[in-house]
What we know:
Elements: H1 2-8, H2 10-16, H3 20-38, H4 45-56, H5 65-99, H6 108-118, H7 135-138, H8 163-188, E1 202-204, H9 207-214, H10 220-234, H11 243-247, E2 250-252, E3 266-267, E4 273-282, E5 285-292, E6 299-301, H12 312-325, E7 332-338, H13 342-356, H14 363-372
Parallel strand pairs: 6-7
Antiparallel strand pairs: 1-2, 3-4, 4-5, 5-7
Helix pairs in contact: 8-10, 12-13
Amino acid sequence: MAVSTFIRCSHFRRLVGINSNAVALFLNTTRHSNYVKSRSYATSIDEIEDTIKYSTKKPEKKISKAMLMYLQRAKEHDEFMKKEIVEYEIGKRHLANMMGEDPECFTQADIDRSIQYLFPSGLFDPKARPMMEHPEKIFPSRKAAEFDESGRPFHSMFYTSKPNYYETLYNIVDKIKSLNDVEDSLIRQGTLPMDKVNLIGSTWFQKHEIENQLLESINDFEYNYLITSLERLSDHPLSRRATDFITKYRKTLNTHSNEVAIPPLEHDSTGRPYITVKNCMRKSARGEVTIWGNGSGKIIINGRDITYFEEIHHREQIIFPLLFTNMTDKVDIEATVNGGGPTGQSGAIRWGVAWGLRSFVDKAMVERMRVAGLLTRDWRRRERKKWGQEGARRKFSWNKR
């Protein structure tokens, strides 16, 4: 009504000088006021929360295809690992029940011991035995996401295609620069820097070990370049300050710090040298071997010559250490052995002969004997019969009808 009255009084509008724009503004204001008056307001708490939620809702971010694929692979990997861990726990409990132990206190050492018991001597090589370890140790670790949902990479060297590798090279250069600054300051003070890292007893990782650490595949050139850079860092006069960084890419060698002492030769009343080796073992055979120097190659076993063994290959077992060291006609051998069969007895005498010949040869020959396996005991035994089977591996015959 107020609007119609205002429109009719057009002569009054021209009188006071109101233009058309002011009229339009007034009409819009009036319509808005009418809308506000006629609008229903929320009175319940749920309606108020819905109003706030829809009013503050932000537009959803678009996830890149690469991120979607990564999330899918990560989900599949997590489900796979959960399944493997469940199967590992079930297998561990079954193995503990077989061994009659508490599954809750069954450790990895108990698992290894149980496998060694179930597969005792028939599988002499540890690599031939079945393996049962936690899936996190068996399956390689995966790289984390290298980019966010929008596709922006996290790593500054993402576009090099090998960010961890080039980051390592960058860290090496950064370490060298910082050591150079410290070296310059020490030289200005009149001090000669000499504090190199000690790398004795360790060696650089192999290519596959570097790849496992970086979680990236590298070629031979990149591996050699990385090792050269690390060697340059380790040759720095102050490389000891970067010991923690350098040792991450080195592994300790299994050195024999306590070298087995070779017993000296003994002499009898006539001055003839000899050496006696006790506890010669192979399977269930036990024996003792005496090697006399200044001999002619005579071999006596339990009061008989080498024909004590009827088979040729048993005789060859005893003669092989003498042929390997060129001592066939330079020493005499006296051996006493009991228990076991011809295979065990010949093996026990062979180890005793090889162990005693160390006192008659130089260190170079001893090292050759060690590499050839003459100084290693053969702990293999007959594999025991399994329950429910005819033998260690042989099964009972089964006929369907």
